[in-house]
Amino acid sequence: MRARQTAKQGPGATRFAKAKKTLALLTMVAPAAIWMLLLRYLPMGGLVLAFKQYKVNPRNPTFLGNLLNSKWVGFDNFKFLFMTNDAWIIIRNTLGYNIVFIILGVIIPVAFAIMMNELTHKFAAKAYQTMMFFPYFLSWVVVSYFLNAFLDGQYGMLPMLQRAAGQTPTNFYTTIGPWPYIIVLANLWKNVGYSTVLYLAAIAGIDTTQYEAAAIDGAGKWQQILHITIPNLRTMIAILFIMNVGKIFNADFGLFYNVPMQNGALFPVTQVMDTYIYYAMRNTGNVSMASAAGLFQNAVGFVCILIANKVVKRLDSESSLF
């Protein structure tokens, strides 16, 4: 009798039972899905702004009305990125700094994570980890004033030490030479701690029996790092590498705007895509050009992610992002 009742229930009852079972999970996912829809996908309709000459009509002050009535200009809004005399400098600085950030952003955090993992004193390891992670929470405005305490021509520590040594103090905010190194060091100081914590978490997930077996076989610490730790980090390294390559045509606006104190004398080594767009938009107020610049950066980043993922997939299919 029970068998007949189960047969009569059929697949519909089974689907209902599964839906009821997952209702709690679907309810948990719903807020995030709505947030993604409203704040990430719905605004994509505004990408058409990059291809129009947006003008505000006093008789129709709504954004949608002005957008629909604005003139279609195609790719004209993209030209300002490449028509300027400084286009080569902007592209060179943006790509050059990001390439250095990507390379050093892998080597240094991995090295620090391995060294901190080898510390036997747990309190010291936690203290170092906290001190390295703390700068990540500081804004670039605060960092710029920390740096100014060292570099200021009148009261900075380095110029004062030069005067005490009988040397002519360097005016860092008008001297181009040191700034590529200052920018790189400031970026590393602020962001290395975050990446180090990620790699430490990956190291903590490595099966300790691998190290025990290697030790029994006579492998030293250096050999264990080369043949166990680093190979187990390759997936994390590959994923962070792919994500960072996607931002290769974007620059950290706070870093390049605040740290040099918006000094025009340093533009040859501090002007990047994001700061150039900011200054151009501040002078012209053309929101269509700003939208075009953002679309261009994201389109290039998307292509770079696909290429980087393809390369990683060829080298190690298990470490690719998708």
Protein topology:
Layout: H1 2-21, H2 23-41, E1 52-53, H3 63-69, E2 71-72, H4 80-83, H5 87-117, H6 122-133, H7 140-151, H8 157-164, H9 179-204, H10 208-216, H11 221-245, H12 253-258, H13 267-270, H14 273-284, H15 287-315
Antiparallel strand pairs: 1-2
Helix pairs in contact: 5-9, 5-11, 6-9, 9-11, 11-15
Describe the fold and architecture.
The protein is mainly α. It has helices at residues 2-21, 23-41, 63-69, 80-83, 87-117, 122-133, 140-151, 157-164, 179-204, 208-216, 221-245, 253-258, 267-270, 273-284, 287-315, and strands spanning 52-53, 71-72. The chain has a two-stranded antiparallel ribbon with strand order 1-2. The longest helix is centred in the first third of the chain and has 31 residues, at 87-117.
